[in-house]
Amino acid sequence: MPRIIVGRDEDTTEEYGTDGTGEIGKHLVGENEEAHKANPVYLDLASPHVMGVFGKRGTGKCLLPDERVLTEDGLRRMDEVFRQARREGVCADGSEDEELVRFDGPSVPSTDGTELENRRVTAAYRKKVDEEIIELKTSSGREMRVTREHPLLTPGGWEQAESLEEGNRLAVPRDIGGCLKNRELEVPDGLEPVAGGGDQMLASYSFGRAKAVQLPTEVSTDLAEFMAMLIAEGHEQKTDETRFRIIFTNKNTDTLERFTELARDLFGLECNRMDESSVYADSRVLEEFLKHNGYETGRNSFGKDIPGFILSAPHDAAKQFLQTYFDCEGNTNGNQVELSTASEDLASSLCHMLARFSIVARISEKEKYAANTPEQRVRTYQEVRISGGDARRFHDKIGFSLDRKQTQLSNLPDTNTNVDTVPCGDIVEEARQAMGADRTQVWKHKQSLKAYEDGKNIPSRDRVGEIARKLQDQLDAVQKTRDELEKHPSTEQVEKLVDTSGVKWKELNDRAETSKSGRESTRLRKFRESPQELARPALSIFNSKHDLERAQELIDRLRELASSDLLWDEVENIKHQEYEGYVYDLTVEDNHSFVAGKGGIVCHNSYSMGTVIEEIQGNDLSDNLSTILIDPVGIYWSMDRPNDREAALLERWGMQPEGLNPHIYIPEGKTGQYDEDGIPFDRTFTLNPGRLSAQEWALAFDIELNSERGVLLERAITELTDERGKNYGLEDLAGKARSMDFRDETTEGVVNRLLDAQSWGVFGEESSLEEFTERGELSVVDVSAFGGMSGGYSVSALVVGLLAKRILRQRMRARKLEEINEMKRMDENEMPLVYMFIDEAHEFLPDDGETPASDPLMRWVKIGREPGVSLAMATQQPAKLHPDALSQMDILLSHRLTAQQDIEALGEIMQTYMRHDLKHYIDSLPDRPGTGLVLDDNSERIYPLQMRPRKSWHAGGTPDAFED
């Protein structure tokens, strides 16, 4: 088979073959959808390179502006979260048509595939598009409108929306109880305490003579009950500019009295009778309070929604709200609980609130007459339905307070309408086969198990748990038998091994070279006297056919699925629509997923660089290499975990899931933050302030070196260095700056910046950057903690710049010693060759402007290959990378670029040996994940390829390499 090795000349390829290379994918032959995979593509790892890894911009992975995302505070529109980011954050890249803003955003329920946990939003993104979007609707009524490339979670992993088909399953939350925080209520700025009224008595000074009312500071069960009544059967009126009125209508006298009592106890409001079935109260202060805390007053029945402070209320208050709302609006019908509402948002919010109690509701649309309107026209209403096991959970955890409805609920027939099923038959079958068990050894009804494995039937969540327990029992028995046979060989144990595993008597007798059939061989004298002679071939066959570790991994996966916070909802309908306008996305730390859409669907935001790193770490030459990965997003900690979710795909490539052993370094001053967020790390790093030059400080602080502040900074550093050498801290430098004769505002401007730098959490008495070049080690330098800070990338660039300078200096010294040793015919290597991988590289080496890392990295680009340092720069925006860096790259790995400026930037440096322009090659790629181009300056060739799947877990988004 012809070999394709990029980054290596013909002579080296002839001498060494594929030694010192790594397989990154397979060559694609043909164009567009006719392209098929052919020969493996290898990447040279033995020689230094300047490499570019360019991914498609995250523009396709977006939702429409009115799609709502579930946050710890409640449901919020995507465009609303983006507006918050613009108010509070820092624009990392922006134009009218496309904008990325980094900020310390709200926490959202997020998942890596099984459990939901809170993770922080670190950036918001929007882009103006004119393209086709996809509207998905599931069997439970969940809906979402997304761009074609937006990833959604399926039982087999993350899949792009355009690849989904009707009948596929998507993850929706079934338990979000631990992901919402109790939000304190806030008093609007326009209200002030009334003299002598206590802290709770507040009135508006801007509304003149508005009556003072009592305002709660937390969400109690009484407030939840009041809001449920108001939303269900109340409405608000603005009778004029100075009067706001709430009206509650109910034919039950006791209910009217209860609403009146709650208004009095909560707010000090007295309700008046409007008619026999209605009461009202006036309060501008209450209007301002409700609006300020997220309840939109004055909405009609089609516009109503549950405010965030109720959706995220304490458990007892949330239960009270649901019980009261279902008392007002809900009923039992047939075998289910049902509720009708005109508001689509309200139906969606109810589904999220019910998910706090592990209750999955279904939504359907129903056309009916609006009886409360004079014209009684037909309108679309939302039907919220709870049935089967979820109805039983509703009975036990929520219920009705009205005796009549609770009795009907208790009498619902126990029907099996459970929608909470788990498509996992392939996992069950693989686990069973990995331990050599037949179906009867696992399940008494082997035909039902076969139906699960064949996908004809889908087991319920409870049934999956039972199957996992049975598989575990069988695995324990097989493992015990194997261990006993290894320790104490006997013919009885051989028989037991054959009976409990996939070892067959015929193959065992053939291997033992006996003519006996079946278990008759165990009665032969030679095996009874020397049972190890029969035990050895039995164990050899067993080990060649079974993988008990893999079986245990799969059983653990089944347990996760049986107890997970997710439900696998079937895609019922897919529509394609044209859309013109803005689309939005969020960057979420670690898991990079969030819950959005009507009723809630788990979706992913924003892998090739990780593939190259895997090949380096698994290569025979790895002891001669040291790998450093700059991680500005905080996603590469997951590389220690095998990519089990793509085990089936890896098997088709002849590979297995395999975790690496990265050492995760974080800033020493940020350990508390990482511990609080539950993010793993191994070690910390620090910088010595005395090692920074005046120019580096100026770049970090974004001040001109020849400005008055820059001059002060440079003089202070020079004098302090003369006095104390490099051993001084930030306070010492600030003190020196204060002692110098400059204007007060200049001095304070520099001093304040120096003292603010303490919050970066990166400075210490010593610099620990020398730890990053151990042989064979993968060091992940996590600088994501700086991402939410103003000027955070300057701080990250400061770390990268100092690290790059130190390594290049050390490698240049080591290279001289190596050449001396070569002259003396000594085969010694003092320091390993170094690979540095930088994600979001355009932030460190931009085309416009300068960072503290610009000069050090440019030296790597221009002279680094000679002393033995390799630089791999990954970005989704190559046009924003310094053009000198682009021009010096000898290997480019590029996926399907969409932005014209990115295509032009690469095309300019590759024109010399391309038969067509770059856009032609890109347009010829099949439109499926993981396809790309390798441009090899060494051979002056361009190769279309399909990237191989990752072996280690990728926490940063949908992997690029997933289609066979």
Task: Based on the model shown, name its key terms.
about 950 residues; alpha+beta; 13-stranded mixed β-sheet; 7-stranded antiparallel β-sheet; 37 strands; about 35% helix; disordered C terminus
- End-to-end CA span: 20 Å
Shape: globular
Strand sequence of the main sheet, in spatial order? 1-3-2-37-36-35-4-34-33-29-32-30-31
Number of helices: 31
Beta content comes to 15-25%
Can you give a write-up of this model?
This protein is an alpha+beta fold and 964 residues long. It is built from 31 helices and 37 strands. Residues 196-201, 203-207 and 957-964 have low confidence and may be disordered.
Summarize the structure.
The protein is α+β, with helices and mostly antiparallel strands and 964 residues long.
Layout of helices and strands, plus pairs?
Blueprint (H helix, E strand, L loop, with lengths): L3 E3 L3 H7 L4 E9 L6 E9 L5 E5 L13 E4 L2 E4 H11 L1 E5 L3 E5 L4 E5 L4 E23 L4 E5 L3 E4 L2 E4 L8 E5 L17 E3 L7 E4 L8 E2 L6 H13 E7 L2 E7 L3 H15 L4 E4 L2 E5 L1 H9 L15 H4 L3 H15 E4 L2 E6 L2 H12 L6 E8 L8 E10 H10 L5 H8 L14 H11 L3 H4 L3 H9 L6 H27 L3 H10 L4 H7 L13 H5 L2 H14 L2 H16 L2 E23 L4 E4 L4 E4 L3 H10 L7 E7 L15 H6 L10 E5 L3 H7 L5 E3 L8 H8 L6 H17 L5 H9 L5 H13 L21 E5 L9 H32 L9 E6 L15 H10 L5 E7 L7 H5 L3 E5 L4 H11 L7 H6 L7 E6 L4 E7 L17
Parallel strand pairs: 1-3, 4-34, 4-35, 29-32, 29-33, 30-31, 30-32, 33-34
Antiparallel strand pairs: 2-3, 2-37, 5-6, 7-8, 8-10, 9-10, 10-11, 10-26, 12-13, 14-26, 15-16, 16-17, 18-19, 19-21, 20-21, 22-23, 23-25, 24-25, 27-28, 35-36, 36-37
